[in-house]
From TrEMBL:
It holds the Pfam family DNA_alkylation. SUPFAM superfamilies: ARM repeat. This is DNA alkylation repair protein. It comes from the Bacteria.
Length: 235
């Protein structure tokens, strides 16, 4: 499929109801309002063409950007391309679910996470916490720098409530990821979760809620899923 054909298909899949839902969540124009499940029907056509996937992201259309993330091969992404994606992510769903996930499966995961965590730009820092969280969900334990993770947990404990809006959300998610996917640090993550308590995030005109990190980790433990890694964090 060509870029024009994919964009036409996305437009045909879009609905006003889905668009209204995404707008309530903070989506930025332009986009058609395509459900993720419907969008996945196009992945088999796009993933064969890395250039097409990159072109889709650079359209600035939120639906196309999400499809690009579902279709791209992270292993073939350069550091510069990933940095460009982070700068172009214009709302949190693209920053967290696409840029963060794709970067986490690239060879530059931790390098970029560290860089983005230092940014003063809310969505780029958002990409940083999301990337690190996604990375923990797929990386073998022996490859994880436990001391660095401990330092980040300490940073979250001391700074989460004064951080930028979406950064608070992904910081909370980081604590959950540590507790859920790194068993040797579960107790420490639980303690941090209990100390930070309820995290307040403006989620727009939606019914979304920010989970209590300690409660979430306890539920994962109750299911016997602590330390169970994902095959992919792109979804």
């Amino acid at each position: 499929m060509t870029l024009e054909e994919v964009m036409k298909s996305l437009e045909e899949m879009g609905t006003e109801q889905t668009k209204k839902t995404f707008l309530r969540h903070g989506a930025k124009e332009p986009f058609f309002g395509v459900k993720i499940g419907d969008m996945k029907k196009l992945v088999k056509y796009v993933k064969k063409d890395q250039e097409l996937a990159r072109s889709l992201f650079h359209t600035g259309n939120s639906d196309a950007m999400y499809l690009a993330g579902l279709s791209i091969n992270p292993k073939l992404m350069t550091k510069e391309q990933l940095q460009s994606w982070a700068k172009e992510a214009h709302w949190y769903m693209i920053a967290e679910s696409i840029v963060g996930a794709v970067a986490a499966e690239s060879q530059y995961a931790i390098e970029l996470a560290r860089e983005w965590l230092k940014s003063d730009d809310e969505l780029i820092e958002d990409c940083g916490w999301s990337t690190y969280s996604h990375y923990l969900s797929i990386a073998p334990d022996e490859e994880i720098d436990k001391e660095e993770v401990r330092e980040l947990l300490n940073y979250v404990e001391n700074n989460i409530h004064t951080s930028k809006n979406r950064v608070r959300y992904t910081m909370n998610g980081f604590v959950i990821s540590v507790g859920s996917f790194v068993p040797s640090l579960t107790v420490e993550a639980m303690m941090v979760g209990q100390k930070i308590g309820k995290v307040h995030v403006d989620v727009g005109d939606t019914a979304c809620k920010v989970p209590l990190a300690s409660d979430y980790i306890e539920k994962v433990e109750a299911k016997g899923k602590l330390g169970v890694k994902k095959k992919t964090c792109i979804c």
